[in-house]
């Protein structure tokens, strides 16, 4: 049976609760995994990190939507494989709602097709389950300041892995991706392609001879014009169009 465990709020940092866009605010995290050992390990690891608050644990995707509405997490660490409803369907349901939390998928690399589906649905990124604790913490912080991506290396690995099956990319998907990218200016398109290649803002700035602030402004316009929620989706779109 699926279960939901609510955690008491962290009494520390009362001056700026629940404002992840502020560097001093709490980041509320919900852990979703059917393995109690994984949930316990993540809760123990993250519970001692300043500004991170574990607001609850969920053991199945079927209860994630209700738990998110009740606990109002900023970030959900979501397992993929769960018995009643997997993390992919739960992610799709969450992202259809308003003010959806950021979602980071927990997975193993051989589930790349599932991860791709989750990212298309609006998940902010993914972590391998053997990711070092510092990288998990970094990923949580990154998605809460709008980076919506993990390390560029991880994204490059994912895209390269999926690209191995590029011959089977549906023609209509490639055509649609190309039509969407045609909405962009030439400079915005260059930024989108660089995102698709897994480059960070700093790397894009160096490559295109612009400031990091200008890159961020271009990324924001790209997301708005393409009606996307994060840069991982931009990367996938560039991949679908055959440009990355």
3D architecture notes:
The chain has 244 residues and is an alpha/beta fold. It has 2 domains: 4-150, Rossmann fold; 169-240, Arc Repressor Mutant, subunit A, CATH 1.10.10. The protein is 49% helix and 13% strand. The chain is built from 11 helices and 6 strands. The protein has helices spanning 36-47, 64-71, 87-96, 112-121, 133-144, 152-163, 171-181, 186-196, 201-208, 212-226, 231-240; strands spanning 4-6, 27-32, 52-58, 75-79, 102-107, 125-128. A 6-stranded mixed sheet has the order 1-3-2-4-5-6, with helices on both faces. Strand 2, helix 1 (36-47) and strand 3 (52-58) form a beta-alpha-beta unit. Helix 8 (186-196) crosses helix 11 and helix 9 packs across helix 10 (212-226). It starts with a strand and ends with a helix.
What are the defining features of this structure?
244 residues, alpha/beta, Rossmann fold, Arc Repressor Mutant, subunit A, 2 domains, six-stranded mixed beta sheet, globular
Low-confidence stretches: 10-24
How much of the residues is beta strand, in percent? Answer: 5-15%
SSE arrangement, N to C? EEHEHEHEHEHHHHHHH
* Rounded Rg: 18 Å
Spatial ordering of strands, largest sheet: 1-3-2-4-5-6
- Outline type: globular
- At the fourth CATH level, what is the homologous superfamily of the largest domain? Response regulator
Total tally of structural domains: 2
Class based on secondary structure composition and strand pairing: alpha/beta
The CATH topology assignment of the largest domain is: Rossmann fold
Count of distinct strands: 6
Task: State the separation between the terminal residues, measured CA to CA.
Answer: 43 Å
CATH 2nd-level architecture of the largest domain:
3-Layer(aba) Sandwich
Query: Number of helical runs?
Result: 11
Please give the CATH class of the largest domain: Alpha Beta
Portion in helices: 40-55%
Q: Summarize the main sheet.
A: 6 strands, mixed
Average pLDDT score: 81
